[in-house]
Every structure is written in C-alpha cells, then in structure tokens.
Amino acid sequence: MNNELLIKGKAAKKAARVLATLDTATKDKALITIAETIMEQEPIILEANDKDIDAGRANGLSEALLDRLLLTAPRLESIANDVKSIVNLPDPVGEEFESRRLPNSLQISKRRIPIGVVGVIYESRPNVTIDISALCLKSGNAAILRGGRESAYSNRAFAQAVRLGCEAAGLPPESMQLIESTDRSLVKEMLRANEFIDIIIPRGGAALHQFAIDNASVPVITGGIGICHVYVDVAADLTKVIPIAVNSKVQRPSVCNAMDTLLVHQAIAPQILPRIADAWAEHNVEIRCEPRALTILEDHPAAKPAGPDDFDTEFMALVAAVKVVDDLDEAIDHIYAHGSGHTEAIISEDYTAAMRFANEINSAAVIVNASTRFNDGGQFGLGAEVAISTQPLHARGPMGLKELTTYKWVVWGNGQIRP
Length: 419
Fold this sequence. Notes:
It is a single chain. This protein is 41% helix and 19% strand. A seven-stranded parallel sheet has the order 10-9-11-8-7-12-13, with helices on both faces. Strands 5-4-3-6 form a four-stranded parallel sheet, with helices on both faces. By secondary structure, the chain is α/β, with parallel strands linked by helices. Helix 3 (42-58) packs antiparallel against helix 7. The chain folds into two domains: 3-221 and 399-412, Aldehyde Dehydrogenase, Chain A, domain 1 (3-Layer(aba) Sandwich), CATH 3.40.605.10; 228-374, Aldehyde Dehydrogenase, Chain A, domain 2, CATH 3.40.309. It is globular and about 75 Å long.
C-alpha cells in the first residue's frame, strides 16, 4: 500500500473513534470555526484556485469544467455559509428509533452511529472538499479525500483551512485528510483499503463510477451522473414552462442536476417549442432535435439534428436535446430508456398525470412544476451534500447527515437468558 495512504488511513481510523463520541456542541463549534477560517484564508484559497484555473486552461479544459473548478469571493462566501447552515441541522448521531419492549421484557432499539471513515474520490469541483468535510464532521465520521489533479492547489488550500479549524476547536486535525499524491494508482488502492475505509463515494464522470464499481472491495455508493429530463405535458401551464426550461438548463449548466433533455407533448409542441428556443437563444443554448422537433424549429438558428448519442449524454454545457412525444406514456418510456436515475421533472396542471409521473418514474428525485436544479442538498435543507446517489440503496438523492450514518441494535435486559 502507498505510504501516504497507509499513514493517513491509520490516522483517520483513530480520529473516527474520537469523532464518534463527540457531543453536538463540540462538532458545531468546529464547523463554525472552519467557516470562519475559510473566510480568513480567502486570499490564499483564491490564489491557489487561480493556479488551478491557469493550469486547466493550459491543458485545454472545457469552459464547463473550468466553471466547475472556479472559485470566486461570492462562491467562497456561499461555501462558508453552507458550512454554518449545517450547524442548524439536527445531529442524527445517537438518535434512538424503532424502540420496543419484547414479551421477555428486553428493551430493544436501533441507535444511529457514524459509518466510520468515509473515502471520497472526486474530480473538478473543489467545494466538494468542504462539503464532505463539514457533513462528515457533523455526522461523526472521519474522511479521506482524493481530488482530481485539476483542482490540486484549491483542494490543498481548503484542506488546510479545515485542518486549522479542527485544531482550533480541539478536534483531531486528522479528522479530514487529503491524499495529495496525484498518482492514479492510489485510486485503486483506496477502493481496496478495507482496513481503513468503511465506504467509498466516487464523484465524477461515468468512467470514474464504473472504475469504482469494477475495482472496489470497500462498499461503494455511486451516483451524480445526471441525464435529467423535463417533460412538458399537454396540460402544462405555459406561463411556467419557459422559466422552468430556462432555469433547468442555463442557471448552471455544468452541474449534474441541469436538464439535458426536454420532452414536449405533440399537441402543444408547435406552440411552445419556438418560444422555448427563443428564450434559450438569449443564453446561447445549442438545440439538438429529433425529427419532429426539428420540423418545428427548422428555421431556428440554434436548432440542429440530434446525433445518435445525444439522448444518452450528460452535456454539462449549454446544449439541450429536444424530442416531441405522443403522450405521457412515451415520455416515461423515453426516460426509462435514456435516463440515469438522477432527476426528472414534469410540468402539468393535470393532477392525475403528475401523480402518474411521480409514481412511475423511479429516479432519485421526481419534481412537479419546478426546476431540476432543486435536486441539491442545500436546496433540500440538508446544508450540503456528499453526493447525489442514484442507487436503489438506503441513500438516494442528496446524501446529507442522516445518510452518513448507520445504526446498531441496543438491547437492555435485566438478567434474561435465552431458553
């Protein structure tokens, strides 16, 4: 095993035992200190991020990836505020649930406990370093993080801020540790470091997720690949359609909950599609259309024929695939055929249609009459998120504090023995 991973793995395991026993007030004090340290370290963090951005441009990163990587003073303030918001969330650790007394008078219950050491492998977005650190601390977990080389300087600056904050609050500085080596072989070693890591969460593209699935012996929770859809039903309120279609696509196109595919009922497509296209054109959205949509938009300068893979693509850019469908059934069938299980939205004033969509779509989040951009830990009131899980496991959608806990059975007796 790589020496850095070995040393940090042992330290994380030791820190996890301390974190698991901390009271809420101590953890909240650490979070506030970390948020304050981020703002105190703003010049250092932004200078480090400038180095990453310069290197990214030199290496030909796309504008979408550069946007994911970019830190600004307002974004930094938002990240610090997200940390502070976690202070106001209930601490799940120690919660007793499903308590009952058995006929033999044993008192039995489940108690929430931290998972232990959470390993996260992620790519461009340096804010992940802070989001994960804060959520892991509040939920009593230690963390070992391995970010991408494109955000190496930013990640180190954030990790230093977390370390300083932990030390100032009296927590083990090893509570969150960053693997600084960019050696790709370390990723596989993390995936098999069962001795030190209790769960792995990969955050990145499809290739990273598949690599984790294929190579891990540590349990893995995957997600975050977003091929997200908005379906405009025949009963849609047309005053809602354009704001939702624009916000879902352009508010921040480089993130996983941005819309990739717009599906429109054939009865209203001639009326609403040109208006959507015009609204998108103000934001330079390229529109890739299947034949029926292209017939409607054939004179629009942003419209072009869809390629064979466009309906299976997470664009992470100002690009949208558009398809005209016969009805709700075809929209649902399309989502099952091409979706990634992330976020799907319907715009409809027909309660029956909306309920069918909500009941039949099995994605991590189903949204009625609102933007796909709401599938987010902060927007759902979780403070932040470790990842957005698309697996059919205990954790689906944004993974917040409760999703970073497991439980143990606690049994109280009074001398009972098993017959």
